[in-house]
């Protein structure tokens, strides 16, 4: 009897110790993983809104009895999973990361849906900026620097003109965006787990995006030059093919990495628009975010305008080479835009109804343009229409590239003496 009673007392003490140990361990876990909301301006989610709780249901532990009731996810909770961004580590491993997966579930459950989405957008901006810098560094270290060493060693220019300008832009982007990324990372560490603002950082560097104009201008020609070097297997082509086989490039060609700045430039407006969408109008960062979006839109519109101006000037220069009889007259001047290059009578209803007229109808050329008067068939006449002049020309043939060649029929207008157009040399534009 004594021995049995002793065993019962001992068993009861052991049970109490285990219960006390379990309780202490549970409370320790809560203290360890709970993040206080320092200076948090976000509103607390209403108690009846179970969207966030359902979206982040924790796996059952040993001390929790699994519920037999199925968990239903609403559309809002599904939208959270669609915001997942792809992140690649430095060793090439791929993993999906969103902000809510990096913090305690208690913190997530205490945020309103709007603030949760805002934190996800902030996290995506910081993370993708880091990935962008990583890609630029790959181009710099594995292509630009080895190519420069090869040029120095051989004392010979290896890189074509447009590709060289693109490489110079990438080196500059790497320098600036490393600074931006470091500032964003420091802000994330200082304000963790809730980042309150990054708009002031981006506002300080929004001018950087003007430097993307030369890159966009020379990008297409640079790709053609790169493809030509690879096709010919010259010194640059062989070096590029060799470097592309390295494991660091994840089986992607150099042309794919050269597309990164263009993709990043397009993504910034979307990210900032989402950030503004989820920023509280009464919050301290709303005005800065509005200002950031306005200035970013202005800068990108200016970059787009520079690209259109350059492309238009190139079209005018190329058209000049296909027109015989221009003399000293120049099409490619400031503020002139090429609108269309089309058959002169394509919209004539009479010719559409009576195609035979197209063969018989002729016009007389300007006597000052030819040594003898000559009639030109209407079916070969084209109008070269700009915003300030219209030239009438006769189609005479085709170039190797399949573009029509012309002979001028009308007399080009003289340039006003008090407003002489300023000619722009190709080498002077966007060096």
From TrEMBL:
One of its GO terms (molecular function) is guanyl-nucleotide exchange factor activity. This is 4772_t:CDS:1. Residues 1-11 have a biased composition (Basic and acidic residues). It comes from the Eukaryota. Residues 1-26, 356-376, 402-431 are annotated as: Disordered. One of its GO terms (cellular component) is cytoplasm. It is found in: Cytoplasm. Residues 356-372 have a biased composition (Polar residues). It holds the Pfam family RhoGEF. Residues 12-26 have a biased composition (Low complexity). The keyword Cytoplasm applies. Keywords: Cytoplasm. The keyword Cytoplasm applies. GO terms for biological process: intracellular signal transduction; positive regulation of Rho protein signal transduction. It comes from Acaulospora morrowiae. Residues 117-306 form the DH domain. SMART domains: RhoGEF (SM00325).
């Amino acid at each position: 009897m004594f021995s049995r009673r002793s065993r019962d007392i001992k068993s009861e003490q052991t049970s109490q110790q285990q219960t006390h140990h379990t309780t202490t361990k549970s409370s320790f876990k809560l203290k360890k993983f709970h993040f206080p909301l320092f200076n948090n301006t976000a509103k607390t989610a209403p108690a009846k809104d179970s969207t966030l709780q359902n979206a982040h249901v924790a796996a059952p532990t040993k001390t929790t009895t699994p519920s037999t009731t199925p968990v239903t996810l609403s559309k809002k909770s599904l939208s959270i999973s669609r915001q997942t961004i792809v992140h690649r580590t430095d060793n090439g491993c791929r993993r999906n990361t969103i902000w809510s997966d990096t913090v305690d579930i208690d913190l997530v459950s205490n945020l309103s849906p709007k603030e949760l989405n805002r934190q996800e957008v902030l996290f995506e901006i910081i993370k993708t900026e880091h990935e962008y810098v990583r890609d630029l560094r790959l181009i710099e270290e594995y292509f630009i620097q080895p190519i420069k060493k090869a040029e120095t060693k051989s004392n010979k220019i290896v890189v074509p003109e447009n590709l060289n300008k693109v490489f110079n832009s990438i080196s500059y982007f790497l320098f600036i965006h490393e600074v931006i990324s470091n500032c964003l990372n420091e802000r994330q560490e200082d304000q963790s787990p809730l980042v309150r603002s990054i708009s002031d950082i981006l506002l300080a560097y929004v001018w950087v995006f003007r430097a993307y104009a030369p890159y966009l201008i020379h990008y297409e020609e640079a790709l053609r030059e790169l493809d030509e070097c690879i096709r010919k297997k010259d010194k640059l082509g062989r070096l590029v093919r060799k470097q592309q086989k390295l494991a660091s490039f994840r089986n992607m060609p150099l042309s794919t990495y050269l597309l990164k700045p263009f993709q990043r430039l397009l993504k910034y407006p979307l990210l900032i628009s989402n950030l503004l969408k989820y920023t509280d109008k009464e919050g301290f960062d709303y005005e800065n975010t509005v200002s950031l979006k306005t200035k970013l839109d202005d800068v990108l519109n200016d970059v787009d305008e520079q690209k259109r101006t350059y492309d238009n000037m190139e079209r005018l220069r190329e058209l000049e080479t296909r027109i015989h009889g221009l003399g000293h007259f120049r099409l490619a001047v400031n503020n002139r835009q090429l609108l269309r290059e089309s058959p002169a009578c394509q919209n004539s209803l009479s010719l559409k109804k009576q195609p035979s007229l197209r063969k018989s109808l002729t016009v007389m050329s300007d006597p000052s343009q030819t040594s003898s008067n000559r009639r030109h068939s209407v079916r070969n006449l084209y109008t070269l229409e700009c915003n300030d002049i219209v030239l009438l020309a006769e189609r005479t043939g085709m170039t190797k590239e399949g573009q029509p060649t012309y002979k001028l029929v009308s007399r080009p207008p003289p340039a006003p003496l008090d407003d002489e157009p300023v000619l722009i040399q190709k080498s002077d534009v966007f060096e």
